[in-house]
Specification:
The protein is mainly β. 2% of the residues lie in helices and 69% in strands. It is built from two helices and 47 strands. The N terminus is likely disordered.
Amino acid sequence: MRISLVIVFFASFLFAEVKIFATKAVDSNGTITLQNPIIIYNNSIIQAKHGLITKKRKIILNDKVFVTYQNKSVISANSLIAYSSRNIEMNDIFFYDKTMEGWILAKSSLSKNKNIYFKKLYFSTCCIKDPDWFMKARSATYNREKKSLKLYNLTLVINKIPVFYLPYFYVNFDKTRRSGLLRPYVGFSQTEGLLYSQPIYFVTSINTDLEITPTFRSMRGKGVYTTFRFVDSPTSKGMIKAGYFKDDKDYYIRYNLAHQKHYGYNIKYERNGLFTAHDALYMNLKYANDVDYFYLDAYNYRFNDAYLSDKLITSELNYINVTDFSLYGSYFKYFIDTTKLSNDTTWQILPQLNYHHFLSKKYGLMNLLDINIYNYYRKVGSNFVLADLLLPVSVNFSLFNDYLKFKITELLSSGYGFYYQTASKKSKYTNLSTQIKLYTSLTKAGSFIHIISPSLILNLKNYSNSSIYTDLMNVPEIQNYLTFNLFQIFEKDSFKLTHTLNDTYYLTLKKYSDLENIFNININNITIEENNRYSIEKKQISYNNIKISYNNELFYSFISHVYQKNISEAVTVGITYNINTYKKVYTEYSYDLNNRYRKYWLLGMKLNKKCWRYDLSFKQSRIPILEEDGISYRKDNIVTINVELKPIGGLNQTFVFKGNK
């Protein structure tokens, strides 16, 4: 039987309705031969040049087989055999799915239910023609429902070079949260050895999750940090973090540490609209037996010792309520000084109460009001209470048809404090000053644009009186001074200038501050940035920072010079060369002119494409070390490896190799 255009409804085949279209169909002893068949079933469309429907209800397609599924994935193959809707084999296939933004080339595949099983495959998210990177695997499983890909016995190939082998690799393209292993963190230190931290992530509910991160430092010790996060309302969120790290005994003894065990916790919570629509709560509570607890955090794979410099651990609890005209606030601060054996004498602020009336205009006057009350508390010793007030009142006038503006401000600042558990003298201060400001802003537009905004401020101390018997009160210093400020912008064609000039003359002291001169000039591809401070009294430059750069499509280069009188002077040069649209190499060199030594040199390469990016660099720094017999230097070598295979993840590591003196 010959049919020129056929539609077949085949209900028993796939246990669902199937529509088969063809330009020609020939039935021979129960086997139907199809030309240009199109099969529609279960949100899928299958096309081919030739096809067969066998007596056993099996569909065989070959020659340019093309499958689309839910407008999300596309498959092309040389042949297809469908035993049922849940059992489909294909050979020599190309698979693309929008969810994973990548493709798979495979020798064969088997589709069962929600899974597709691939054999002898290549996977990448780069351009299919000569991809920058791909994974070659013996087999793989892609789950359409979970949007996950599992690869077995794979080799990562970058720029046609095999980089490493993995027996198993799992990647999930779904943006929804799910439990599993997160990216590990690896680092190296010459004193603490290899660092390895492996976060384990648990989705505990729709609005909570838990992260447990064991961390290991091969030459120091091991520990674990745990973070629990939650969202309890649309306008609030919180976090509870705790950790423990124990040093090895030999490390503890070698470096004579105060503690062998380091532990602590951190509780954060913030909420908008706690009692009303216009209030907010912020809480950040911290505890640690020493600051090494923060330094040893599992995520500090770069060994950033900035955590060790601040010996003060601060906890905060703040609440504010805002109305149309005012703000009411209460702020609690609790300090732990890790240099002390006991914090019984450490001052705590429990609490600070604040009232702030926003800037408003009444009877032609602009004013605001700020009042604070501080309760300084300590467990041992008398406590102190302090109240201060700030009240500026100003009036504005326009002169000469708005070409000149005039503003006068009266400023009252006052404070009062006393120790309330013992008989002592009261501390207090009162300051009253007047500030007069003349200013304008003029614009000229035509063949060029010029905006100039000069101002002149005169500040006069009218009254000042203080009697202070504590170090907890900071009395604002009122000076008689005259300040000149100029800001301007000039643009014409490819030329653009921004310029700021300001200086202050102290009337009572009869001395000038440093004249500050800042400008930025752009001329075509050239940029000049200058920040200069000139001492009028000494008639010399106290600070200067100038940078000249050139930028075009091919390369970027700069030279900078930084000078601080009696402190430092250094010159730095840098060049970035764009190899192509995606790749660039860069280098920098910095030299200390004062001490006549190389500060650092840097060499790196960057690439940024749709499917991957990397930033690889090597930096050698000379670190000055002050010793009894003078200054010596230590060479540190820093290797940074930042590679991301989009969208599956990557590696971001910095290795610091501290050298000898």
